[in-house]
Amino acid sequence: MELWIPITIAAAFMQNLRSALQKHLQGSLGTRGASFVRFGYGFPIAILYVLFLHLGAGQGLPDFSGAFFIWAVVGGLAQIFATMLLVHLFSLRNFAVGTAYSKTEPVQAALFGFLILGEKLTSGAVIAILVGVAGVMMISMARMPLSWRNMVAAMTSRTALIGIASGGIFGISAVAYRSASLALDGTGPIMSAAVTLACVTSFQTVFMLVWMAWKDKREIVQVLVTWRSSSLVGIAGILGSACWFTAMTLQQVAYVRALGQIELIFTFIASWFLFREKTNPMELAGCLLIVSGILGLLFW
After folding, report:
1. Chain segment 96-114, per-residue pLDDT in tens
2. Mapped to the 3 state alphabet, what secondary structure does 148-217 carry?
3. Based on the structure, what is the number of domains in the chain?
4. To the nearest whole percent, how much of the chain has pLDDT over 70?
5. Helices 189-215 & 66-89 angle (0-180, nearest 10)
6. Given CB 3.0 to 4.6 Å as the disulfide criterion, which of 18, 102, 172, 259 pairs with 167?
7. Which residues of 57-70 are buried (b: 16+ CB within 10 A; e: fewer)?
8. Is the pLDDT at 221 greater than 70, yes or no?
9. What average pLDDT score do residues 81-90 get?
10. pTM (two decimals)
């Protein structure tokens, strides 16, 4: 098994855990505060990770370039706004369906990867990704009669558009992060991913602190008051991001993000057992289609 596969599965699990904790926090912190804790409580761990690799494992630090910082800022900003859209989406639909809407990301990531990095996919991989997207469409229509009119209505509804926008911006951030990591010279993929993560999360923390201080200083106070639960979001988020960054340094973004749809399995489990949310047979069928797309991606 190629190394990027178990790393991506671990990333998907940690991302689902982080999203579940963010959904829980949204009521007390709001969308901006619940999004901030992912970065604010995570960046010290990212810096410690780099120091461990450098001082403990003896890995050298990379050579920086202007292209790295440009891609890091683009990816960091895109991830902030994509996260805020996703957290807001949780208040419009249940946890599982809200997450599913954003899972059009692999197709959008593949498009961005082709346009920006010139990455190409096999015909089998394209089919597998489209099967996964069909599953997302099925989930979006799970609570209405099946018809072309309802399909158009479902995919153009406010919740669907927010979810698709979230997936698209996450796709941009993923391609930007891979570009940033590949722009670092003089070190291996693990250190490149770790340095990219540390730089990006530090920038995101400063950016969001300034934003919250400008908009509403009380949000910063709430983030500090809820430090116990907020720090868990940060830990889960930074561990997941470390895995994502490493996997995307090792493999094309479209493949990593498509396999990352396995997160929906973890999402349905969390939705059922943690939030006591009900899912209907069509939603489960859509989840199975997504899983089929994942398996097709791995074996084609």
Report:
1. 566 666 666 666 666 677 7
2. HHHHHHHHCCHHHHHHHHHHHHHHHHHHHHHHHHHCCECCCHHHHHHHHHHHHHHHHHHHHHHHHHHHCC
3. 1
4. 80
5. 60
6. 102
7. eebeebeeeeebee
8. yes
9. 80
10. 0.76
